[in-house]
Specification:
With 279 residues, the chain is an alpha/beta fold. It has 8 helices and 7 strands, in the order H-H-H-H-E-H-E-H-H-E-E-E-E-H-E.
Length: 279
């Protein structure tokens, strides 16, 4: 290894040109440059007739056009190669992908996800903790004119009885009624504090949903949906996975449609929340 501290000089233009020609690179560019230089000299010194110079000029322009066409074809070939590489990488993903690669141990922090959202949809049993945690972000989005649609279980129906059967340590359906009432009161308060710019709609489901959902701009090309898998008689965090509109087209549409099914199956919550049944 050389110990010479002086910076290494770049190769001169003639050396670079010679290296390109030796490797067969950019030959048409050097040919066009050479012909143009010869034409300029012939024209200045009046060596040949103007008609010859004109014909040679047209030939040079044709060579330049061919060079440009070749560059376009190279770009197209490069794009096709990239597409083929992407397809090969996707096909190389093993079918037996470990579940931890896409399944999280709990739902993510959604505050950053809600920034800029105009359509927010939530599905859960009571969503009390979710609504409290997301309160500031929901209020900001409501002030910006967003629509928030929420689905929780109906406290005045069979859903609470079904819920206690799968919940560890819960023995009475009365536990759910005040929690759902609190959720709706918080949402009503957020709607009032937002100045009425946005809109909140709440519906009550007559059965316990099989999973919770957080949908963010679900009808947009960059929509995201988080699905939380409910469990049975366990205090472990609910597993959760993410779906993206542009990446997971089939299953993304499936779960967005599931929200629509739940929404149509539920009844509107009474207004105000005080009209909900008490325990």
């Amino acid at each position: 290894m050389s110990n010479d501290p002086r910076p290494r000089r770049d190769r001169g233009p003639l050396r670079r040109a010679w290296s390109d020609l030796a490797a067969g690179n950019n030959v048409e560019i050097y040919a066009t440059t050479l012909v143009s230089l010869v034409l300029a000299l012939l024209s200045v010194f009046d060596v040949v007739a103007p008609s010859v110079v004109a014909a040679a000029t047209l030939a040079t322009l044709a060579l330049l056009a061919i060079s440009t066409l070749g560059s376009r074809h190279q770009v197209q070939d490069l794009r096709q190669s990239i597409d083929s590489l992407i397809a090969a990488v996707n096909n190389a993903v093993p079918d037996d992908l470990p579940v931890h690669r896409f399944l999280a141990v709990k739902a993510p922090d959604l505050h950053d996800e809600l920034r800029g959202a105009g359509d927010i949809r939530l599905v859960g049993v009571t969503l009390g903790r979710t609504v409290r945690d997301l309160g500031p972000s929901l209020e900001r989005r409501l002030r910006a004119g967003a629509t928030v649609r929420v689905v929780v279980i109906d406290p005045d129906g069979p859903a609470p009885l079904d819920a206690i059967e799968r919940t560890l340590g819960v023995n009475s359906p009365d536990l759910y009624r005040p929690r759902i009432k609190s959720t709706i009161e918080i949402l009503d308060s957020l709607a009032a504090e937002s100045g009425g710019t946005g809109r909140i709609e709440v519906k009550l489901l007559p059965f316990v949903p099989a999973f919770g959902m957080y949908l963010i701009d679900p009808d947009e090309p960059d929509g995201r949906t988080y699905v939380e898998i409910y469990q049975h008689r366990s205090r472990e965090p609910n597993p959760c996975f993410q779906l993206k509109a542009e990446r997971d087209a089939h299953w993304y549409k499936f779960f967005v449609n599931q929200f629509d099914v739940l929404w149509e199956s539920a009844r509107p919550a009474p207004e105000p929340a005080s009209e909900l049944p008490h325990s």
